[in-house]
Amino acid sequence: MKPMKKFVFLLMLLAVSLSIHAQKGIGLGIKGGVNFADQAIDEIDVKSVADFHFGGYLNLNLSENFGITPEVLFSAHGTKWEELKVDYDYIAIPVMVRFMPVKYLSLEAGPQFSFLIKAEAEEIGDIKDQLKSNDFGLAFGAGVHLPVGLRVGARYVLGFTDISDVSEESIRNRTFQFYVGWTLFGAK
Q1: Does residue 57 surpass a pLDDT of 80?
Q2: CATH number assigned to the domain comprising residue 161
């Protein structure tokens, strides 16, 4: 088994184990949504293309107002560079610190670690060898958490890593996400 697959498997195993022994402050859920991604590149017109993400999360409620939510997501990104469409797929691991200033509303921020699993350009094919395999960024946003376990929110991920291995131009990912989630077990 490849190291990334082992890592994701161990994270999911930990999440399942914690959900089985769920206490009031721990919960396990699923989420999915839409991505609007592009890259910050000087002197190139880049347009976002709608794509998707899905995965699981773990609620670790530290108090009534604070918590930590690590997630494991498959995150597809599509962009257009001038007239060339480029598709990227990542395994993203955001670790969000949540603050709930009022009941049902949370503000969140934290680091996101992403691992490139596919990169293709229209009419060119595989370009994965031209990109760095890891991306690091900061994610921040807000969400609404309903008592039945339903959650909806929006998040912006600001990439810090220059993802290109071949260009002298700096290329950094930027992603706006809308999501819907449902806490299946444990703390909502």
Answers
A1: yes
A2: 2.40.160.20
